Each structure stands twice: as C-alpha cells, then as structure tokens.
Amino acid sequence: MTSPTPQPQTEPGHRTGADGDVRRDARQKVTGQARYAADHTPPGCLHAVPVPATVARGTVTAVHADEILRRPGVHAVLSHHNAPRLGQADDPTLALLQDERVPHRGWYVAVVVADTPENARAAADELRIEYATEEHDPGPAAGHPRLYTPQEANGGHPALRERGDFDTAYEASPVRIDATYTMTAQHNHPMEPHASTAWWQDGDLTVHDSSQGATTVRDTLAQLLQVPPDRVTVHSAYVGGGFGSKGTPRPQVVLAAMTARHVGRPIQVVLPRRELPAAVGHRAPTVQRVRIGADTHGRIHALAHEITTQTSTVKEFVEQAAVPARTMYTSPHSRTSHRVVALDVPTPSWMRAPGEASGMYALETAIDELAVATGIDPVELRLRNEPRTEPDSGRPFSSRNLASCLREGARLFGWADRDPRPGTRRTGDRATGTGVAAATYPYLLSPSTATAHAAPDGSRTVRLDATDIGTGARTVLARVAADALGVPAASVRIEVGSSALPAAPLAGGSSGTSSWGWSVHKACTALVGLLQAHTGPLPPQGLTASADTTEEAGRTSPYARHAFGAQYAEVDVDTATGEVRVRRLLGVFAAGRILSPRTARSQFMGGMLMGLGMALTEHSTLDPAFGDFTERDLASYHVPVNADAPAIEAHWLDEEDPHLNPMGSKGIGEIGIVGTAAAISNAVHHAVGVRLRELPLTPDRLIPHLGG
Asked: What is the reported pTM?
C-alpha cells in the first residue's frame, strides 16, 4: 500500500516555535553538569587498566604478576589464574579472563589495579606475559576456502533468498551490470570512551556505564556474575555517542564489576582509544558483487546482491548487507546471499545503520551504473522500478514515499539543470559532478515499559530506562508525553538512564523513540483516564499509571514497514591531486511523523556527515602479520571534521502512516547515513567519468585514473 503523496516540509530546521522543541539536556551539557560514566569516582575508587594480548593467536603461558605487585600503588593483578569465575555468557566476547586462550591480538588477558590511572597504565604497560603462539589466519575473506553460508545474517534475516530464476533472466537481459564493490573495515569511535565505574555493597552491584541500554547491561551482568537482576543497578544517564559500539555490553563493564568484586573497592575502567578497534566491535570489511539485468527501458528483471565478509573465531557476526536489495526495487528474479569466514581477527559488531549503510552503497552505485548504461536519468530509472509491494515478502508497504522523496529532492537540488554527460563541468583542474542515491531503513519495535505520575502540584513525571546517547531522547519523550497528557511539555519531567527505572530497550536500530514512545504514550493515556475518574484533590502521593507494550510489540504486522529517503550530492574533484571535496549534500526523508523538528534535523545532518566519512575518509587496514588494525586512533583513522562539512540541507515529508505506533513515527537516527556514500560516489563518477568501486575514495585511488 502506498499512502497519499505527503506534503514536503522544506524548512524543517526553522520550525523552532514547537512546544518543547528545545533540548532538555542542553544546559547540563554546556555547563558541565552532565556526568558521564568516568565522572563518577566514589570514595576509595581504584583504577583498573586491561592488558591486551600482543600475539595474533595462541595461549598465555605465564603472567608475571609478582613483579608488578611490588610497585608502589599497585593493588592487584587479575588474569585467568585468579579472576572471578563467570557464568555462561550469551556473548562470548564477554567471557574475559576465564582461560588461557588468545583468539586474536587485542583480546584482554589481564587487568592491573592501582591507586591512580597513571600508576595503573604504567604498571599494565610493564606487565610481562608469556605466550605460546600458533599460526593465525587473518584472511582475506574473498576466495577463502573456509567460506560458508550461515543460517542467518544479523537481525534474523535468512542469509540466502532466491526468487524466480535469476541466472536465466540475467543472461536473457539486453542490459547487464556486473560489478564488485569493496569496503574496508570501519570503526565507531564515539567521542566518549568506553568507561565503567562499579562497586559492590552488601552484595549489591552499582555500575555507571557508557552504554546504549542500562537494562541490557544489568541483565547481562546478573547472568555473568550469577546474582539476581534486582541486586544490580546500572546507570547510563549521559552517553557521549555510541554508534552501535555501546549497543551491547562491552568488556569494560564486565572487567570493572569482576575486579571490584575481587578487590572489595570501587573500580573504574576507561578503555584507551587505541584499543577500541579490537575490543568493542567494528563494521567488517565486505566484498559485494551486484548483478542487474534490465531491458533497454531500464526496467529490472534480474537482481543479485552477493556479500562476502568475515567474522572472528569468537563469535559469528554477519552484517545483513544484502537485505536492503530485498526491499528496494522491482525484481521478479532475485538472489541475495551472504557468505562469511571465521578468521583470527577481532570480532565485528553493530555499527551505525548496519547492513543498510554498506549494502545500499553497493546497490545504489550499481543502479547508477545501470542508468549510465541505459542512458536514463538516475532519478527516472529509480522511479521506473518502484515496486507495488515489498519484492521479497509480497507484503504491502505501510507507506512508501520514496518516489516523493526523489522528486522533491530533485526539485530542491535543481537536478533538472544537470548535464548528464560525465566530465562536462570543469574549471581548470577542478571537475564538478552531482549524484543521487536512495535510502531505506526498516521500522523496528521492541517491548518497553514506563510509568506516568501526576503530583498534587500539577507536575507530571514520566519514568523509563531509555538512554539518551546524544540524540535528544529526553526532549522527544517529553513531547510525546505532553501530547498524550494534553499539557505543556515544560510541565513534564522525564527520568531516563537507569535500570532502577521501568525496563526499556536499548537505543539502537533507530527504534528507540518508537519503542519508548509507545510505552510513554500508553502510560500517559492511562494516567489521563485515572485523573478523569478521580474526584477532588489528588492524594499527597499523587496518581501513577504503568504501561507495558510487550503485547503490542509482539504482534506480527501484515505490512512491510520502512523509512525511505533520497540523497543528492555535489562534489569537486581536483584532477591534479585527486582530492574530493563535497560542496553540497541534500536529503529528503519519509519517516512518518517527525516528533521534534530541531533534533530530527540534527540527526539527519549528522547521519549524512557519517556517510561522507564512509565515502571519503574512513579507512582501516588489517595488518596480516599481527591480525589487528593499523589505524587505531583519530590521527590515523580519519573521521570528517568541520573543514570537511559541506552545506547540508535536511528536509522531510509530512508522512501519515497509521500502521506503526500511536505517534506515527519511524526511526530517523540512521537513515541519513544510508544513501550518502553512494550519492557522493556517483557524483565523483559524474565529475570525472571514472567509476571507482572501493571505499573510501581517497586521492591515491583516484589519481591513477585521472590522466595526470
């Protein structure tokens, strides 16, 4: 089902009059009142520094703790010899200090505890550990003899899906595209490091953790430490970014809790940035082959998207990069597959728009190649291949306004004035080009609980364990509550960021607002009913309503539910140096009802900047000799900075979709990333007539193709 064409919102960034649109945490952050995990240092707090393995594979044969324990200020050295025993770990990357094995370089094999961070770091650097090394296999994955097809890719998606007869349809197509696209590993690198402060008191564990979900961390710690969940409290009040790397519990929180139990003192663990690529996940490198068979009018008859990637020997993690091809375009004959190999390398994990970000880069670049091959405008080509229902499932769309996004984006960008011929806009050594790509991200929903309280003084308080990772969750939830209660947002207090509050899912998968917001709306609606039924003044303790959306979230929808968008880019390429500069980015999105225009615009813009990083700067090299990543800091792993930021325009359509949640909202945190890299790559091709199929598009890769 396609909803009626929505009206565009062309100046979303200037809608500042909306009640409650000012960020709730702004003053706390700019004045330093916001306290992050490492800002909590209880009396008697010690500092623990993990020790990463220096071999690519093997076993620990000796830990010379006695030498370190003689140093002033050192309190303990933990290794597999003396660390507390952990319970069964659902995530094997958290089975830390439990045995002598070293599955990859950077795996934590010991922890040094001292009175100051400086003493702990110095002692950890001096700790002598002996290893028995084994031969290691760092890949690469492409062509590896142990490649296999897993049962599922991430998110429970079947790894292999086939419809029709792809091979026959492809061979019979008069226009065929067969291209392979590669991406190096990418790393999350949030501004705030992964940090935890933990202490035990009378058998109860309290933790301040930099996490995207305190409830999940609490439940994991309770399982590992074999204590009841109600004896564990995790606080994640303020989090300085995560981008997926804090979406599941990470080593620092487990090490802090087990070390605090061992020494009987509060412990703080802050992971150094140089260790993050090996310790907290990354986007695995991929090799993606896309084949498209079409007629001379650009209508797709056959589509194959085949992914080759890698995981570690510790845990299978397969990014679902071929899944977007099951949603995007009409394709009666289709093959989408994932193949993976387990190598002696760090474990990949969730990273900003997993699956969609990498998969849509390859798919949308291949679509651009098809447009060039058929001589059809890239926007028109996409419109010609709009499906009536979701190709893979056959389900109707709850709403699909991609066509409106493409048309509105083309109007705002001035696409009609574009000369389609590559390399026609030149000024001296500078070549200018424009490109377009589509974007999609699934609508995800998880069960959540919340309470809403009315006090006699007229104030309202909403409580739930949502996590604000810097995206403005407090602001948006206050708006949802205010709308349901029929009161000004300023009168609503929001309490989030602690497992002591009603349980809620983590901030991830662009699902936070939809999941949390439904429980907030339900609790506030119930509170309105209580207030209407109550006569006389409120009792001193006020009135409280609770909500649980487990039933609603568990219902199977008959609709395919996705957000969509279109992104346009203008670039300049210096044909002498190979440098690419993005001059303009424009995105138009259809993501249901936008609840907070100001924070939404910020998220869309931030997503497009992350996509710029994918396209031009973010590069990571796996050193085959050591089995770890060479670029391990922000001096060598380049993320976009202010000087790289172009003029960015974020727009959206006022989309009505009744098949989502009471707010009518879809996720917006990640869709801004999804199409940006392909739009930039397509713009580079338009500027110089050279099609590069490996990200990032760095000067050294461009120069050999620019003819001097």
From this structure: 0.95
